[in-house]
Design a protein that fits this description.
It contains 16 helices and 19 strands. It has about 450 residues and is α/β, with parallel strands linked by helices.
Length: about 450
Amino acid sequence: MNEHDSEMIAGMLSELGYVQVPDRKEASIEILNTCSVRENADKRFFGTLGQLKRRSKEDPEYMVCVCGCMMQQQHIIDRIKEKYPWVDIIFGTHNIHRFPTLLGNAIREKEQKIEIWDARESSEQELPAKRLYENKALVNIMYGCNNFCTYCIVPYTRGREMSRAPEDVLEEIEKLAADGVREVMLLGQNVNSYKGEFKNPGNQQKARLEGFVEEDGICTFSHLVRLIAGIDGIERIRFMTSHPKDLSDELIETFRVTDKLCKNIHLPVQSGSDRVLKKMNRRYDSARYLDIVRKLREAVPGITMSTDIIVGFPGETEEEFEDTLEMVRKVRYDSAFTFLYSIRTGTPAATYPDQIPEDVKHERFNRLVELVDSISLEKNLAYVGRTEKVLVEGRSKRNRNTLAGRTDGFKLVNFTIDPSAFMEKGEACSFDEIAEKLTGTFMDVRITNGKTFSLEGEAVL
Ligand code: 5AD
Ligand code: SF4
């Protein structure tokens, strides 16, 4: 979500005529879009901000802007005002669209502008984004979160849940498709609780005839996915994130019947211990989670799964941590994002007395990562010999003479390609030209090796 906010900020700057520079030293404006989900991000922000002080004092043309989740917390604003008074603009997560106005005012009036809103005004403040990828787009379908997991700051920084109208989402995706986008990632803190109100009663009527709309005239997430699948040009649909407590049978059925919905799900488990899950306020237990996994795998053979896991939640015992390891062994995730529990001021868990010592947290964390990685590697090695369809993203980051793309199951594939096939036909004469020609297209790739975080392969021409 922060990444998409950054795309929108870049989009607004482009419209104002600004261009992105390769080196921050050349920038006349620097914007730090912050995350506050863990303390490390907070620390890095203040570290980076400190480095900008000198130039900010010496160069009157240079602007420093800070925004994002951290700015929705009063103690952070107080600290910036006191220790970093030279920051030019501060805005929050609910008023990104105000950035051009704030920028104009700050430049004209040569004074600091601070504007933080407590809540989003409406669900229609979508802005033109400068996309990171030409053929893949992030699309907000809802904002905020109502779940209040006891460790998490997001409900406080992103506010209450608000779903965009289905028509607005569809219109945005139709425009993206016309602009060459082939894959959309639908974004929400908990997409399974999407409840879109149709703007047009005719659309609601039509949806009801198709058997989709719930009694109160609300469009569900599954219905939205099926409507998006009807848009020409869009070939892949993904979403992030799903809360297990709200994952419906209707969504599992949608996976089965909607070819365009990628066979991949990110389903944060957080812990394998029922007592810890209860203390986290997750509102499911390990048996229910495993049941969802079983149903998904039965309905969608080959579906890939990833998760989020927190290690060292207050009070977590060695046995409870081992329940998490057991969960990982049972589910066998394709990949997992693992986190050390981090105290977030203002959340209930921050006040729990039985915080886990750092060394214990780290020791558990290392054991978990070792297990997760070994399963990822085994899973990826099982792809060797298969041919996978990938959407080409461009040249690989590591090896500039290979291309990179993602499979339907979201696996990153770095693959080689025989340039002679293109050169003989006169379609290209350098690897650069080949890369440009193939970016954004779908290609068959034969997998030749599996690594922990990616696959390797060769293009089938
Ligand atoms: N400490 C550690 N990890 C956290 N997450 C959220 N809050 C915290 C915290 N206080 C993790 C959760 C969530 C992911 C985005 O970040 O696993 O799913
Ligand atoms: Fe945080 Fe829980 Fe909401 Fe996810 S569902 S954003 S972990 S409160």
